[in-house]
DUF7963 domain-containing protein (Hibiscus trionum), 785 residues
Amino acid sequence: MASTISLPPPDPSSSSTEDPAAKALNKRYEGLITVRTKATRGKGAWYWAHFEPILVRNPESSLPKAVKLKCSLCDAVFSASNPSRTASEHLKRGTCPNFSSCLRPGSSLSPLPISSLASPSSVSYHHNRRKRSPPAGAISVSQNQVSNNGHDDNNSNNNNSLAIVESTRFLGYSSHSNNNSNAGLTQHHLVLSGGKEDLGALAMLEDSVKKLKSPKISPGPALSKGQIDSALDLLAEWFYESCGSVSFSSLEHPKFRAFLNQVGMPAISRRDLSGARLDNKFHEAKTESEARIRDAMFFQVASDGWKSNSCCCCSSYTSSTSSYGCVEENFVKFSVNLPNGSSLYQKAVFTGGPVTSKHAEEVLWETVMGISGSGVQKCVGIVSDHKAKELRNLEIQNHWMVNVSCQLQGFISLIKDFSKELPLFRDVTENSLKLASFVNNNLQVLNRFQKYKMRELECAGSIRVAFNKRHCSSNVTHVAAMLEDILSCSQVLQMVVLDNSYKGICIEDPIAREVAGIVQNEGFWNDLGAVYALVKLIKGMAHEIEVERPLIGQCLPLWEELRVKVKEWCTKFNVAEAPVEKIVEKRFRKNYHPAWSAAFILDPLYLIQDTSGKYLPPFKFLTHEQEKDVDELITRLVTKEEAHVALMELTKWRSEGLEPLYAQAVQVRQRDSVTGKMKIANPQSSRLVWETCLSEYKSLGRVAVRLIFLHATSCGFKHNWSSMKWICAHKHSRIGLERAQKMIFIAAHSKLSRRDFSNEEGKDADLFMIGPEDDIFNEVLADAP
C-alpha cells in the first residue's frame, strides 16, 4: 500500500571530483544509504525505519552542501552527524508528534502512555502528499478502508493519500506481511466503559506492564546515614527559621515527599519536627545564648512592641493583629545587646492590649532579673519604645542603669507632632482627606478617575484614605500614603474636574465644587508638595536609623542633622522657620537623655583635632545645660567615694584627649559594599581604646565603656505576619504556644547571629516595587517652588 520514497542517488557527473568536501559529503550520504538499506532488511538499528538520508545541494553550483536526516513521520530535518542521538532525542523522548506508540518486537523503546491520547475513541489521520512506508508498529491503510461509508471520497487521490493510524487506538489488529503486502485489519475503536476518566487507570496498567517487561533500573548510590541525618538537620533548621512561613502541613505535601524520595531522603512528618527535634534545637540555641550573656561583663536590654504601630512608617513589623482575630494584642519582644555589638533574642511577651505604666514597669524589671540572675548590675541599661516615665522610674531606683527611649519612635512621633501642631500640615491633610473621600465615594467620579488614571499611569485603583482627622494625627503611614497617591495623580485629578460629566455633578453638589476648587488651586499643590517632602525627609532619616541602629553617642549628631535638613526645607518651600523649629525642639526635649551628651563626649569617634594637633572631646558643641548633664550622669554612675575622682579624670580627658595615632585609627572609615556609604571600619575600637591605652582613667573608663556600646533603638528581630498568625492561632493552647515560642526563639537566634534585621515580607515586597512612581514624586517635588 505504501512505499518509502527517498531522494535519488546523486549524479556523479554533477559533483566535482576535484572538491574534497563534496567527495566527503557524497561518501557520507552513500554510507548512510547503505546502512539504511541493511536496516530495512532487519540487519540494523530500528530508527532507520523512520529516517531517510538526504543530500542538500547548493542551488547555484549544484555541489553537495550538507547531509541531513529527514524524519519520514513529521518531515523534520536534522544533522546526520549522530543518527543514534537524533533518534533518542526526536523519537524516544516523544518530540516527534507522529511517532507510533507501538514498535516492532525487540525494540527497547517504551510505548507512549495511553493517557496522552486526545480521546479514547478518536483516530488520528496524518495525510501526506507523497507515499511513504509506515513506521514500525503502525498500520497503513488506504482512506477508503477507514471511510464511514466504505467508499473512496476522492477517487483522484486514492493512491496518494495514506492514513497512518496509531495502533494504540485499537484493541486488536493483524500484522502486515513481508514485501509490503496489503495489511489485513480488524478495526475496533478503543471505547472505555468509564469514559475519559479511565485513561488514568489505563495508563497505570500500562506502567505496570512496562515495569514487569523491562528490568528495574538500579538506583544510584544511596545516601549514608550520616548524610541523611545532616540533610534532615539542615531541613529542620530551615523550617524553624522560616518561623511560620512554611506550615507543618506542607511537610506532608505529595510533591515535597516526592522530592525527598528523588534525592534519596526519607519522608519527614509534622510529628518529627514538632517533637524532640524542636526541643533539641531550642536547647542548643538557648544554651549558646545564655553562655554568651555569662561571658559578657555587662549588657543592655532592648524592648520593642509596646506601641501597636511603633515602626509602621518604616515598614517594620506591627504588633496589631486584629486581622487575625487578636484584637489590639501587643507582641512585645525582648533582646539583649552585648558590648561586642551583637544581639541575642530573649523572649516575647503577650500583653493582651494596652498596658498600664505600672504593669509595663513590672514586666521590664522582671525581664532584667530573669536575664541577670543574682548579678543584676550586669544590666547597665534598657532601651525601649515604651514611655519614658517607666524607664525613668527604673533608672532612679537603680543608679547604675541608663534607660533611654527608642530613637526611631522619637522620629516617628515628630511626624505626628507636625500633623497636630503645624497649620500647613493640618490644612493640607484636611483638604487631601476631603478630596480623597469625595473621589472614592462618588461612583461616577471614581469611574472617571480610574479611567484617566489607567490611561496616564497605566494602573487603576482608588486613593488610599486616612479614615478621619483623628486617625490622620495618629497613623503616619496612612497619611503618607494618602498624600503620596494624591500627589502622583495630580494630572489625573485635573482631567477629572475638567471632564464634562464632573461639571454636571458640580451643578447640584457643593462638595464637588469645593473639591474642584482644591484641585485647581495651585497653592494646594505647592503646600501638598511641601508637606509630602517633609514627611519623606523624616521617614528617610527614620529608615536609616532603623537600618543603621545607631548608638546613643550618635543621637546628638542625628538631631543636629535633622535641624539642618528641616531648615533647608523651610527655605525651599518658603515656610516660616520659627514654628517648625519650635516643634522640633519640643520633641527633642521629650526624647533627650543626659547619656546622649556623655556618650558623645566620651566616644573617641567624635574627637576633634585642634590647632595644636591634639584630638580633644567636642565640648564646644554642647550647651551649658548639656555640660552639666555630663557631670551629673558620671557622678551618678560611680560610687560616692570615687565621684570626685571621675570628675578629675573628665577634666583631664577634656584637656588632653587621645593620642593622635589612636584617635585616627578609631575614626578610620571604609566604603560599605552594600550601601556604598562610608562607615566606621571597626565600631568596637571606641570601647577597646578605653580598656587598653586609656587604662589610667580608672573611674571614668568604667563609665565610658558602659555608655559607648548602648544602643539608641529598640528594634531588632522582626517577626513576619505568618508567625504572628500562627501565634494567635495557638495562644489558647499551652503546648501550641510553647512550640511557637521555641520556633520563634530559634528563628530569632539565627537571624541575629547573621545580623539580619529584615523580615521576609519586606524582602518579597521589594520584588514588586514599581520604580516609575518614585520618579513621578521626585518630578513633582522638583517643580515645586
The mean pLDDT is 78. The two ends are 89 Å apart (CA to CA).
